Amino acid sequence: MTISVTPPIRVRLARPEDADAIHAITAAAYAEYRDADIPSSALAETAATVRADLEREGQGAALVEQAGRPVGCVRFRAGADDLYFFRLAVLPECQGRGLAKSLLLWLSGFAAGAGKERLWCLTRVSVSRNRHLYRSHGFTEGEERTTVNPLGAPVRVVTMTKDVDFAGQARQETA
C-alpha cells in the first residue's frame, strides 16, 4: 500500500524581492494561453514589471510555498472598500492540489483584516475552469463585457465577486 502525503503549505505576503519567483510561476502557469486567439498579457510581463508593481502603494501579492518552494501566487490591488486580484497562478505540475483554493482563502482573510468589503476579479468568459473555480468558492458572476488588455487586444471577461465578512471568512452575496 502506498500512502501519498502532500508536504505542508504556507501562504505569505510577497515582498518585492519575490518578483522573480512570481514572474516565473505566472509565466509557467499562463504558458498554456500562448497560442490562444488572444494570448494573455501576463506573458508580456517581466520580473522587473512585477517588482515595480509590488513596490507601488496599494498593490501586493501572495505566494504559496510547498516544502519551502514557491509554487503559486496571486497579485492584488486594494481599493477603498474592495480588493481586486489578478494573475492567480499555480505551477502546472502542482495544479489540482488545492493551492489555488489556499490562495483564495488567504485573500479572504487578508481582505477582512484590511477592512475590505469584497473580493473581485475579472476572468475570461472562455476559460470555464476558472469561472468554475471561483463559483465553487462562493464568487458570483456579474457583468460580462469586452475589455482591452494591455497588449491592445479585445478580451471578453466576466466580473466575479465575493463579499467578505470580518471574521476572515467570505460569504456569497445574497441579493
What can you tell me about this protein's structure?
With 175 residues, this protein is α+β, with helices and mostly antiparallel strands. Helices cover 25% and strands 35% of the residues. Strands 1, 2, 3, 4, 5, 6, 7 and 8 form an 8-stranded mixed beta sheet that branches. The radius of gyration is 16 Å and the shape is globular.
What number is the mean pLDDT? 88
Counting DSSP E segments of at least 2 residues, the number of strands comes to 8
Largest sheet: 8 strands, mixed
Based on Cα principal axes, name the global outline.
globular
Q: Structural class of the helix and strand makeup?
A: alpha+beta
CATH class: Alpha Beta
Short précis:
The protein has four helices and eight strands. Strands 1, 2, 3, 4, 5, 6, 7 and 8 form an eight-stranded mixed beta sheet that branches. 25% of the residues lie in helices and 35% in strands.
Write the layout of secondary structure elements.
Elements: E1 9-13, H1 19-30, H2 47-54, E2 59-66, E3 69-78, E4 82-90, H3 99-113, E5 118-124, H4 128-136, E6 140-148, E7 154-164, E8 170-171
Parallel strand pairs: 4-5
Antiparallel strand pairs: 1-2, 2-3, 3-4, 5-7, 6-7, 7-8
Helix pairs in contact: 1-2
